[in-house]
Amino acid sequence: MIFRGRVWVYPDNVDTDVIIPARYLNTSDPKELAKHCMEDIDESFTKEVKEGDIIVAGFNFGSGSSREHAPIAIKASGVACVVAKSFSRIFYRNAFNIGLPILESRVVDELEKFDEIEVDTERGKIKVLKSGKVYSSSVIPEFMQRLIESGGLFNYAKELLGV
Amino acid sequence: MGMTISQKILAKKSNRDEVKPGEIVMADVDLAFANDITAPIAIDFVRKLGVNVFDESRIALIPDHFTPNKDINSANQCKIMRDFVKERGLPNYWETGEVGIEHALLPEQGYVKPGMLIVGADSHTCTHGALGAFATGMGSTDVGFAFATGKSWFRVPESIKFVYRGKRNRWVVGKDLILYTIGKIGVAGALYKSMEFTGDAIFELPMEDRLTMCNMAVEAGAKNGIVPPDGVTVDYLKSRGVEPSEYEMLASDTDAEYSDIVEINVSNIEPQVAFPHLPSNTKGISEIKEDIKIDQAFIGSCTNGRLSDLREAAKVLKGNKVAKYVRLIVIPATVEVYREALKEGLFDIFLDAGAVISTPTCGPCLGGYMGILADGEVCVSTSNRNFVGRMGSKKAFVYLSSPAVAAASAVAGKIVHPDEVIK
Ligand code: SF4
């Protein structure tokens, strides 16, 4: 898939408590969660986020709790994908499982809020439109590609159980 | 090439002779669980598949985060769990009145054994590695998958070996060792990896302290924390009604491969405090030169809500009073801890000091309820995370410490060493 959009720039160690604070975890409704996405790190996010925007960040994005509500809130906000220098491992799994594309790259270093980038998830290429510079991302492991091909963990479970 | 204990468990559960770091395996899980926040999504997964759970005895549902129900939405979340449990006749469910914090409850009730492969829809599932199990936290969908299929996929992690030697100083407990370690390697210092805790100082450490250490492995980004089982493990399990014939004691091979070996001399470690807003912002307590005034102290959570933690706090609080305008909140992690603490007279000590004691719950640890912080307030907490907004207002400040330091700070009204207030 290819996504082209404006970026929201965040630092290292963005944890799941700021992505979606626990005070809103008494529901798992994506729309409700999206209303408070990133609220503790960036109050402008929910007001200005647009369908197709991209989040770029530093190391260890999504650290902390295992709440799947975090990638769900991001996805329900309209964000097309997240590109960070690295991800916490639970967030990484969760994002795949709920169908939020994520890629590892250092592209954040040259970006400012609302710069535009183009992300090619299959080729693992990220292009910065203002500079024309292209970054490559580590490839997605084969097993996870298969997981994506079978349509996520749910369909994989169906295949496995023959239901 | 030999294997680490983590590799051995993953190999065994995926029916292989050997697994190597980086490989992805599909393995059979021995126990899968979720809580009141994460279970509804996992239950939905199973319902949509239209199947039974893979093995009723191997799944557990634990309403611990917002119970007794803190508001209507949480009550509804719990109801989703309870309805599912009733409908499927699931045995491993604890109602309010029986329930405790999952990572304290499961080992205490004898559900966790060496060599098991455990997945939980909660990041602190790594706690259970203290008993020599491979235990890791996942999201709800992953755990829903495990509920339905009995399986989960794993990328075999590299391991870092942490070797602790020497004698612990007075007041230094498992919490201080792990805070010190995270301070040394950073919050992503073990990202995707396994933290294996060894060395004579670990083998001398009581099980409760080992649970505290493994609990915070995720705070260094680790996939799991693990202590190879030994005599302390066997004794602890016996006390929980689990006989050695029910499990297998695995150990890492002497030629196992580690991505790093970190040696730590514990005799150099003093009580530690992690400053806002990262668990890695640690300082030895004597390095704190400024007065850090506090508004609240919280003793509880899956990190430090066990009986030995309450005893440590009581040692400090005995004959003391909490400082004016400071709230001290004590939350035993399970009903058994609650009852034992009551029997031992710890509640009298806490109440005389001016503390409030709640029934078991995660409560304030994740900013749920029972002790939310206001703007600008400062809390010293025995929990595991001091992120922005973790315990309430995003303008509040959370410091992490051991129970003894939290208790002493409640008395002094500022962060101090336990020796400063002990009577
Ligand atoms: S006590 Fe805190 S860290 Fe532990 S499971 Fe509950 S919310 Fe999570």
Give me the secondary-structure topology.
The complex is a heterodimer of chains A (163) and B (423).
Chain A: E1 2-9, H1 16-19, H2 30-34, H3 44-48, E2 54-57, H4 69-76, E3 81-84, H5 89-98, E4 102-104, E5 116-120, E6 125-128, E7 134-136, H6 142-149, H7 153-161
Parallel strand pairs in A: 1-2, 2-3, 3-4
Antiparallel strand pairs in A: 1-5, 5-6, 6-7
Chain B: H1 5-13, E1 24-28, E2 31-35, H2 39-49, E3 59-62, H3 72-88, H4 102-108, E4 117-121, E5 134-137, H5 140-149, E6 151-155, E7 159-165, H6 174-185, E8 194-198, H7 200-203, H8 207-215, E9 224-226, H9 231-239, E10 260-265, E11 272-274, E12 282-284, E13 296-299, H10 301-304, H11 307-317, E14 327-330, H12 335-343, H13 346-353, E15 356-357, E16 378-381, E17 397-400, H14 403-412
Parallel strand pairs in B: 2-3, 2-4, 4-5, 7-8, 7-10, 8-9, 13-14, 13-16, 14-15, 16-17
Antiparallel strand pairs in B: 1-6, 11-12
Helix pairs in contact in B: 2-5, 6-8, 11-13, 11-14
The structure holds iron/sulfur cluster (SF4).
Iron/sulfur cluster binds at residues 65, 101, 103, 122, 124, 301-302, 362, 365-366, 383-384 of chain B.
